[in-house]
């Protein structure tokens, strides 16, 4: 099923209604924009659009992840190591640097995220299928942290494939392909949430402190990667996607999820993926007991990384943030 990125489906309302992807209009605590191949911002997806329904499912899974105690503990650990590496600790608000107060900092941050989730951009400037999405840090912040001023971008062509799978599945997460897309994108946003937390801690003026986030695949990798740190604390490893080593993944399909534990790759089992998209979590992620021994490859491995540009630099973007959701 071919879907266009610019909202050119002339009969999308009937198509999505037939597929069970037409929610009732309701209050929305985030906005979902779309960005054309040219880089220009296009009209937001209406609340009743099928893409909105798919992305909302992804957001709800991510929000449920963040409500798990293991997520709070992992963010608290990040905050503690941030305090060790940085002198700027405004977020403690003159409270002592104790585990309980760091937990309070995490709860304050999550309260802001749950009150207004960061803006989502379905971005068609992305061409590399291995770049599922990311986060653009807003720096410097002009006052208090506003989650709506932070944004995640999702690979537009891949979200098209997710939407096509959702239509075929009639919105049911029991469908294997649709569920796998939901699993992939929710993990992507969860990873990026660690970087939003660093933005919050540093008031947008600092990135992840070097040599502070050390829970990487190799213990010797002293990289500044808060997203990896959060994944390892939550999932037990870092999630990667590769083509199926037996049956190559179709170009419009979702690649196979593996978890990297101590530089060995294990296939995440279907039960884990199914439970996750139903928010019936079990952490760390369960996987095949034996590490993958076959050569793993990704589609379009020789394709260069996308040279991502900030939509904020394009006319009309800041005004678009202030507009109410479209019904």
What does this structure look like?
With 327 residues, the chain is α/β, with parallel strands linked by helices. It contains 9 helices and 8 strands. It has helices at 12-18, 50-66, 69-85, 99-115, 156-169, 176-201, 226-235, 270-277, 317-322; strands at 32-35, 41-42, 119-123, 133-136, 151-155, 238-242, 256-261, 264-267. The strands form 2 sheets. The chain has a 5-stranded mixed β-sheet with strand order 2-1-3-5-4. The longest helix is centred in the middle third of the chain and has 26 residues, at 176-201. The chain starts with 11 loop residues before the first helix and ends in a 5-residue tail after the last helix. Residues 1-10 and 23-28 have low confidence and may be disordered.
Beta strands, count: 8
Rounded mean pLDDT is 83
Cα-to-Cα separation, first versus last residue: 25 Å
Structural class: alpha/beta
The radius of gyration over CA amounts to 20 Å
The major pleated sheet works out as: 5 strands, mixed
Q: Estimate percent helicity.
A: 25-40%
Shape, per Cα inertia axes: globular
Order of SSEs: HEEHHHEEEHHHEEEHH
Provide a brief overview of the structure.
This protein has 327 residues and is of the alpha/beta class. 37% of the residues lie in helices and 11% in strands.
């Amino acid at each position: 099923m071919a879907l266009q990125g610019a909202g050119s489906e002339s009969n999308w309302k009937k198509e999505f209604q037939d597929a069970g992807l037409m929610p009732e209009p309701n209050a929305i605590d985030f906005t979902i924009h779309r960005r054309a191949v040219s880089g220009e911002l296009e009209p937001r997806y209406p609340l009743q659009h099928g893409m909105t329904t798919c992305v909302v499912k992804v957001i709800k899974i991510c929000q449920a992840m963040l409500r798990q105690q293991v997520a709070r503990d992992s963010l608290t650990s990040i905050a503690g190591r941030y305090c060790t590496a940085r002198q700027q600790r405004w977020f403690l608000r003159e409270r002592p640097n104790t585990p309980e107060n760091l937990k309070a900092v995490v709860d304050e941050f999550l309260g802001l995220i749950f009150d207004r989730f960061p803006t989502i951009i379905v971005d068609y400037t992305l061409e590399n299928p291995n770049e599922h999405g990311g986060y653009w840090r807003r720096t410097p912040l002009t006052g208090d942290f506003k989650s709506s001023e932070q944004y995640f971008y999702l690979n537009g062509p891949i979200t098209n494939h997710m939407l096509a799978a959702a239509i075929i599945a009639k919105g049911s997460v029991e469908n294997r392909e649709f569920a796998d897309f939901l699993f992939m994108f929710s993990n992507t946003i969860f990873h990026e949430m660690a970087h939003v937390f660093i933005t919050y801690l540093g008031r947008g003026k600092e990135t992840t402190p070097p040599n502070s986030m050390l829970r990487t695949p190799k213990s010797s990798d002293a990289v500044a990667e808060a997203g990896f740190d959060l994944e390892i604390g939550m999932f037990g490893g870092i999630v990667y996607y590769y083509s199926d080593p037996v049956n190559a993944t179709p170009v419009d399909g979702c690649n196979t999820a593996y978890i990297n534990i101590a530089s060995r790759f294990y296939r995440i089992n279907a039960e884990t993926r199914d439970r996750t998209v139903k928010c019936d979590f079990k952490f760390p992620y369960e996987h095949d007991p034996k590490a993958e021994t076959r050569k793993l490859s990704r589609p379009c491995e020789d394709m260069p990384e996308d040279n991502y540009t900030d939509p904020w630099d394009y006319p009309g973007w800041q005004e678009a943030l202030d507009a109410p959701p479209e019904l």
